Amino acid sequence: MADTISKTGLNEVGSALRGLEKFGQSPWLDFIQRSFTENGSLKKLVEEDGLRGVTSNPAIFEKAIGHGTEYDPAIRTLLDREPLSAGALYEQLAIDDIRAACGVLRPVFDETKGLDGYVSLEVSPYLAFDAKGTIAEARRLWKAVERQNLMIKIPGTPEGTGAVREAIADGISVNVTLLFSLDAYKGVLEAYISGLEDRASKGEDISRISSVASFFVSRIDGKIDGEIDRRLSENHADSAALKALRGKVAIANAKVAYQHYLEVKKSARWQALAAKGANPQRLLWASTGTKDKAYSDVLYVEELIGPETVNTIPPATFDAFRDHGKLRASLEENVEDAVHVMAEAKRLGLDLDGVTAKLVKDGCEAFSESFDTLLGAVEAKREAVLGKRLLSVSADLPSDLKDAVAGATKEWSRSGKVRRIWARDASVWTNGPEADWLAWLTIVQDRLAHIDELEVFAREARSRGYSDILLLGMGGSSLGPEVLAETFGKAAGWPTLHVLDSTDPQQVKTLEKAIDPAKTLFIVASKSGGTLEPNIMFAHFWAVAEKALGKAPGENFVAITDPGSNMQKVAEGKGFWRIFYGNPKIGGRYSVLSNFGLVPAAASGIDVRAFLQSTLLMVESCDGGAPAAVNPGTQLGLILGVAGKTFGRDKVTIVASKGIASLGAWLEQLIAESTGKIGKGLIPIDEETLGAPEVYGKDRVFVDLRLGSDAADSRLAALRAAGAPVVTVTLPEAIQIGQAFFLFEFATAVVGSVLEIDPFDQPDVEFSKVETRKLTDAYAESGTLPPEAPFATDGALSFYADAKNTAALGKGDAVSILKAHFDRVGPGDYVGLLAYIERDPQTREWAQSVRLALRDALHVATAAQFGPRFLHSTGQAYKGGPDSGVFLQVTAQDAADVPVPGAAYSFGVVKAAQARGDFEVLAARGRRALRVHITGSLQDGLKTLSDAILAALKGE
Ligand SMILES: O=P(O)(O)OC[C@H]1O[C@](O)(CO)[C@@H](O)[C@@H]1O
Ligand SMILES: O=C[C@H](O)[C@H](O)COP(=O)(O)O
Asked: Whose CA is nearest to atom 11 of ligand 2?
């Protein structure tokens, strides 16, 4: 702008601009930019051209902030101070600019006794059709800018008009924008007057409120002239009459609006307010830059000069008017002609009502798009400044998927879904209870606000000299802590964090041996407090600790549970050292950034403050102020959701750097339990070693989680080249695992919206729990589980299934049964190996080799899971998700069992009941499932089973 406004002829022709004042019109400038204010250019216009106000809009800020590097230092300074989102950064920059301009214009405000000297700041264009949101934002911005010569710009939509009345009644000066039609203007003037009356009736001063009604001009000609040209090109019968209207309608419309202003001013109603000191709401001519080069470049200034009006002039027009503008009292000239033009437009069917209605809608959309572009540019700058402090997400997508994601992104922008998520609007999903499960959105800020409590606890725990921490929990209560334990390892001088999430007696024993129970801090974690596993694990380790310490070990126990749970009562009754609470508005799989992750993190020496501060950066990246196109959580969610829903790519294959590989298991629960229901969903595939493109079907999306500068698996390049979608999430440092948690939480919520499901419930897991409970109750009553018989036995392997599956599999030997089972696998299916055995390096390796053999032979996705752990994770999707799973459940005779203190059943019985409950639900859901039970040595049995599987796959 400094260059745009010429410096020539100021004294001589500058009088044209200055001359407007003599006609009662105030020239304002439709432009703002930091450097322009800072370098004195704005002041110069005030002093030399008689400039009396400034207006801004989202498009103007987009031009100022969204391009070039001028605002970069300010962005850097702001980010050094606080982890702001793109939206918050923009707002801060805009507020600073508006304040600076208010400072320059303040002398005008004082000299004119509050008539002029205003600077306008527009409410977010996203709120144009949201009355409540608009008034809230108007109040917020008014307070934040805190300048008497500020005007809050509110669009003159029906919703905006309602907000105008409230704002005026509040004492906020308002510039009503996007006015095109006489009717809309009348409504706005009425709202202004009513607002003043409301305020006066409260006995409050109305003399310090100012308002303008921004009537848009050139955009009307743009539309009407376009229609005229279209008709002329078709040799319309009324060609001459149409031609005569070209370039006339906008000005005529404005002149007629001005007549309304004059009439209202004469009214008794207005006079009563004027007597109390009210200022009239002046008409402000906006959109006064000439768009059609065929017209004079000062047309919309010269033709609208009249008393008690404002013209906000864009820079080039300002220059032009200074240079060759002519002054005359044009606004009240030939009013009858204006009325005639309007009548002609009506007669010729130029549909001014339709045009103006469309202009309002288009205007709001255009400002929203400019705002999206602006915030997108700010986000790019933000990411550049944050650099390696932020994880990055990039995607290589085949073109059809890429286009579909771009389409979905547009739709999300248009419908404001990201903002609606943050506004806790359940209509983003199913309009069900989703809004009650969204406290994870702000849990990071919440926990940072209480960080002292965690830090004090960490110090105390450390000073107690524990060698180990053993966390007992399932699913969301254990998988997050497991990621933290495995990602960060043991911190020097701090205890080692172990996690137990199994009822396998051997696994329980292994953990018991790994710790020194007298020097262990036990953390019992359960949101509900009612989950079977943590309760029986607690009973066991309480007894173990009691024995080791020789006294009630409450001091060595900490509970994490939701307030009011049974576990809270137990912990209180048993004198636990501490009880930490979860947030009941956060589900288990979304709880890692709440106390469920933070308490074990703090106790094991992770710097929870730094961890949360880092995580907050990602929370802000996913904020409602970051438009869908640049919002990493939204983009990731749209890619996964659209790939699954539209392209049948519903297997999310997770590949990871070694250092963050445990994130995969946490992601499994998040994705599967959140999305796998009512026959829909994404199936996470974790730890499946990559293969060549030929071994895959077309149902995959690969998510590559990279840590630091770890090189990506070279096989991904081949997959990319073969057209497979690959999303890469790169964490420059391990501490950004918190960012990854939030990123995927947000993305999963987005997937839920795309799939039109409630991502926060888990109906089928509950069903399994009920089935298991029935079996353990039966055991408690009779001392034995209900009898069951295999439908076939082959050596150490016995096969069990429901009637439907049995009928499909036949009663041959192991190989033939397995062959029949895997013959049922088709393209797009996946195979789930569900092993209810100890999860240790050997069994994991066994499961890996079997799943890879299955994948390579059947060209389908495979999952290798351990029970009962997966029941609180992928189990939901296996039962409730798409019916594309083919399951082989593996159970085994336990070498030794472990009793559960105070219960009739043992760990082995619980595990057996869980496997059977799981199978019953799979069968009830009509899934293709087979259970193989190993008797005798587990190691030998597993070998026999894998040999039989390999033979079945070879078709032997
Ligand atoms: O923390 P809780 O209530 O013991 O629940 C453990 C897990 O069980 C589930 O409720 C069902 O599997 C999960 O969502 C949850 O993470
Ligand atoms: O208040 C000012 C308006 O936002 C501006 O004049 C719109 O002008 P345009 O139609 O040239 O975008």
From this structure: 287
pTM of the predicted model as reported, rounded to 2 decimal places: 0.92
Task: Give me the mean pLDDT over the 487-507 stretch.
Answer: 97
> Contact 371/125 with Cβ under 8 angstroms?
yes
- pLDDT for res 956: 59
Residue 374 scores a pLDDT above 80: yes
Give per-residue pLDDT as tens, 429-463: 999 999 999 999 999 999 999 999 999 999 999 99
Neighbours of 939 (CB within 10 A): 12
Complex-level ipTM beyond the 0.95 threshold: no
Residue whose CA is at the smallest distance from ligand 1 atom 4: 526
Containing 427, the helix (H) or strand (E) segment is: none
Q: Nearest residue CA, atom 2 of ligand 1?
A: 526
Is 402 an active-site residue?
no
CA 765 to ligand 1 centroid distance, Å: 9
Q: Using an 8 Å Cβ cutoff, are 524 and 559 in contact?
A: yes
The pLDDT of residue 645 is above 50? yes
Catalytic residue among 7, 43, 132, 153: 153
Ligand 1 atom closest to the CA of 596, numbered from 1: 1
Q: Are strands 797-800 and 928-934 parallel, antiparallel or unpaired?
A: antiparallel
pLDDT digits (tens, 9 = 90+) for 53-88: 999 999 999 999 999 999 999 999 999 999 999 999
Rounded to the nearest angstrom, the distance between the alpha carbon of 766 and the centre of ligand 1 is 9
Domains and their CATH numbers in the chain: 10-362 (3.20.20.70), 390-416+628-755 (3.40.50.10490), 441-612 (3.40.50.10490), 763-954 (3.40.50.10490)
Q: Which residues line ligand 1 (CB under 6 A)?
A: 474-477, 526-528, 531, 534, 588-589, 673, 762, 765, 872
Q: Which amino acid does the sequence have at 527?
A: K
Ligand 1 geometric centre to CA of 414 (Å) = 36
Mean pLDDT across the chain, nearest whole number? Answer: 95
The protein residue with its alpha carbon nearest to ligand 2, atom 10, reads 287
Reduce the secondary structure of 703-761 to three states and give it as a string.
EEEEECCCCCCHHHHHHHHCCCCEEEEEECCHHHHHHHHHHHHHHHHHHHHHHCCCCCC
| Residues recorded for the chain | 956
